[in-house]
Design brief:
Elements lengths: L6 E4 L9 H16 L3 E6 L11 H11 L9 E2 L4 H13 L3 E4 L3 H6 L20 E4 L5 E6 L3 E6 H4 L3 E4 L7 H11 L4 E5 L6 H10 L6 E5 L1 E3 L20 H12 L12 H11 L10 E3 L7
Parallel strand pairs: 1-2, 2-3, 9-10, 11-12
Antiparallel strand pairs: 4-5, 5-8, 6-7
Helix pairs in contact: 1-8, 1-9, 6-7
Keywords: Aminoacyl-tRNA synthetase, ATP-binding, Ligase, Metal-binding, Nucleotide-binding, Protein biosynthesis, Zinc
Protein name: Glutamyl-Q tRNA(Asp) synthetase
EC number: 6.1.1.-
Length: 298
């Protein structure tokens, strides 16, 4: 562990190449770690193998390096850790903290997205097409986000017992991300505000695993004027290596106040060095979304 005690991470999904929206999340995470003299890890969230794009993981790593975002240690691939997740799932099934479920999606939709607990007492046995759900209760789960402030949610009323292994056998994001963050000693998580509402589910899993939760910083999503996430449509275009300095400068202008114009002509390492020194997440608006200034022209 670094002297600062700070361990952060960036965890892309290789279902596509790195685009501008995901670059913003990576840069924010990197700056927060380096500003505090901490370690910055990269983890590939590649569990959903049918959606993984061939070559995407390698392209993401190459792009991060091109943009000066050099990580510490080896890259962890979730697809190589299936036994690790499955061991905990089996323990929770044996202790009745989790149970098998064969409810169709339409039943959850009929209850406004909140699972009604249909299979809670059915004692279903294993079948290849059964999901696994974790039991929740009505206690409020709260945390103070470093930017967004107090967040509180009751899982029983907001989502109900949630899935930790899907019907197709794929381990759910909520479980894998928590187990890997614990295993890697992650202390601080910086990510997009679209994941803010899923954080209480992760807090519940930290509680069951008897581990402390990290500190969270959810940065606003950059939206187009038409209300679409920047990661969609034009924003999903793969980043180009020969435009790294220009694109990084644009990202820094969105994440930091008063970025000097002369930094536009600097190399990516020089831009990042300036940004690490001047990183101040408190200067970001405490909202979930902000408009991309480039879409406000005209």
């Amino acid at each position: 562990m670094p002297a600062s005690g700070y361990i952060g991470r960036f965890a892309p999904t290789p279902s596509g190449f790195l685009h501008f929206g995901s670059l913003l999340a990576a840069v924010a995470s990197y700056l927060d770690a380096r500003h505090q003299g901490g370690t910055w890890l990269v983890r590939m969230e590649d569990l959903d193998t049918p959606r993984n794009l061939p070559g995407a993981a390698a392209h993401i790593l190459h792009t991060l390096q091109t943009y000066g975002l050099h990580w510490d240690g080896e890259v962890l691939y979730q697809s190589e850790r299936l036994d690790f997740y499955q061991h905990t799932i089996e323990q929770w099934l044996d202790s009745d903290l989790a149970y098998y479920c064969n409810c169709p999606r339409r039943e959850i939709i009929a209850h406004d997205g909140v699972y009604p607990g249909t299979c809670r007492t059915r004692r279903l046995r294993f079948a290849p097409d059964h999901a696994v759900r974790i039991r929740v209760d009505d206690r409020p789960l709260s945390f103070v986000d470093r930017l967004q402030g107090q967040v509180s949610q009751s899982l029983e009323s907001s989502c109900g017992d949630f899935i930790i292994r899907r019907r197709d056998g794929i381990v759910a994001y909520q479980l894998a991300v928590v187990m890997d963050d614990i295993a890697q000693g992650v202390t601080n998580i910086v990510r997009g505000a679209d994941l803010l509402d899923s954080t209480p589910r992760q807090l519940w899993l930290y509680h069951l695993l008897q581990q402390p939760a990290p500190r969270y910083l959810h940065v606003p999503l950059i939206m187009r004027r038409d209300g679409e996430k920047l990661s969609k449509r034009l924003g999903s275009t793969p980043l180009e290596a020969d435009q790294a300095a220009e694109t990084l400068f644009r990202a820094l202008r969105l994440l930091l106040p008063a970025v000097p114009d002369e930094l536009r002509r600097a190399l990516v390492d020089e831009q990042l060095a300036w940004a690490v020194e001047h990183w101040c997440p408190d200067s970001l608006p405490a909202t979930r979304q902000i408009l991309d200034p480039t879409t406000l022209q005209g």
